[in-house]
Amino acid sequence: MSSKPVATADEAAYRPAVGIMLLNSANLVFVARRLDMVSEAWQMPQGGIDKGEAPRDAALRELKEEIGTDKATIIAESRGWLRYDLPAELAAEAWGGRYRGQRQKWFALRFTGNDADIDLATEHPEFSDWKWVRAETLPEFIIPFKRQLYLDVLAEFAPLLRRRPGSGEQSVPG
Q: In angstroms, how far is the first alpha carbon of the chain from the final one?
């Protein structure tokens, strides 16, 4: 099943959020291990959109809040919104049980800093560890209920992943 753009009637059942595919100079993808999961759960940075906040602003804010850096430039934005459903046992607990899952606008960002600029010891830590991985191995690290979403994000951003960083790459205007 593909994670499809959200139909308007379904919209209220999904928490509005952003996802961030952070790419380093070697086109490796940033993933981090969640602190709040019993199993080993890795993911790309993501988070909710505050009321009145533009998705691109939310992406940059979430990057800083989750991994302690703002050293990145937006290079692409997903065409539409993608979503995932939480397993029933998590949906009952997450976000006060108000949502079935998240609908996300995804952004590809080019990391412009050094690894030392990444600091998981943020005000409200979400991750215990991080690493750079090859894009094609990303689905191996992701918890099953988000796997299809990640495959869809990889497919949409595939042209960026094939391109040599800096070869005609331009940031997306705001």
A: 32
Write phi, then psi, for 47 (nearest 5 degrees).
180, 170
**Per-residue pLDDT band at 56 (split at 50, 70, 90):** very high
What's the farthest any 2 CA atoms get from each other in the chain? 46
Does residue 107 surpass a pLDDT of 90?
yes
Q: How far apart are CA 74 and CA 72, in angstroms?
A: 7
Using only C-alpha atoms, what is the Rg of the chain?
15
Cα(78)–Cα(64) distance, integer angstroms = 20
- Which pLDDT belongs to residue 52? 97
Query: Residue 18: in which H helix or E strand, if any?
Result: strand 14-23
Predicted pLDDT of residue 55: 98
Please answer whether residues 138 and 29 qualify as being in contact, where contact means their C-beta atoms are separated by less than 8 angstroms: yes
The structure's pTM equals 0.87
Q: CATH number of 8-162: 3.90.79.10, 2.60.40.420, 3.10.20.740, 3.30.1330.60?
A: 3.90.79.10
